[in-house]
Amino acid sequence: MEKYKEIIEIIVKDEDKGKRLDSFLSENFEDATRSYIQKLIDNENVVIDNKSKTKSGNKLKGKEKIIVKIPEDELLEVLPENLPIEIVYEDKDLVIINKDAGVIVHPAQGYYTGTLVNAVLYHIKDLSTINGVIRPGIVHRLDKDTSGLIVIAKNDIAHVKLTDMFKEKTIEKRYVCICKGNFKSSSGRIETLIGRDPKDRKKMAVVDDNGKIAITNYEVVDSVPGFSLVDVGIETGRTHQIRVHMKSLNHPILGDSVYGNTSEVAKRQMLHSYYLKFNHPITNKELVILGQLKEDFKIIAKKLKLDLNKIYRLYK
User: Fold this and answer.
1) Do 126 and 186 belong to one domain?
2) Given the residues 143, 222, 231, 296, the one annotated as active site
3) Predicted TM-score of the model (pTM)
4) Residue 141 is part of which domain span?
5) Cα separation values, 104 from 32, 129, 157, 296, Å
6) What average pLDDT does the segment 94-120 reach?
7) Active site residue 164
């Protein structure tokens, strides 16, 4: 009997009537490639109203029940690739990279090349082995279209200690984002539960039940009519946490097509992890690491006339 990593049930809405099956599934599995979706359909892992024999081009009628069976990850070799990465700190125990937007951290659901892991394997020869071949050295992650600082462990001892530090919240993480609208309060603390959106499984949401505690602190550092530059600190690391919390305040991040709207101004969510402060897992020496803003973020902030110099930690 085949084992599945996850079995997902989706009810097709009336507004999705007429969509191709593969297009619909791609919308609901944002991290999956079209070829991966095709493979799921071809292998009869997509069941529509109890029928597994279907085709990618089938048009939806609305109200169907679709069951998607996600198989266990295949054991595979992840190959090094000579892709550019920006290393901002490195020693014998860890390396910190200022990740570009558009880069997936590790292979998943059909993305087996072009990831940060592929690049890291090329540029860094010693990596921890705790997470196996798919995620060597990966201690935490950033969303594909979020840029900024990510920590990679170079040996197992550092990996274990860094993982514990993230769990125990002894690593200070700060982000900067451009949000839509103007805030009533110049600063605040958001403490909610975050879980799967019951109406849309590809999203996370603030929920009343069946969620995990999420804590975000924010400060508006500059604003112009219609937009705000916000410095954000997180005490927890839930999936899409900042994006969900900004939406909950009715100030979604500019360019966030999942929790806000697509934008002509920004082609990706304007969210960047720029600051890490923690004690080194081996030497215990305090590290303060800054990740400079990516060029697209600078261009958009300038276009909106938001003053990036007000992010004082970034320029201290």
Assistant:
1) no
2) 143
3) 0.78
4) 87-167
5) 11, 19, 25, 18
6) 86
7) no
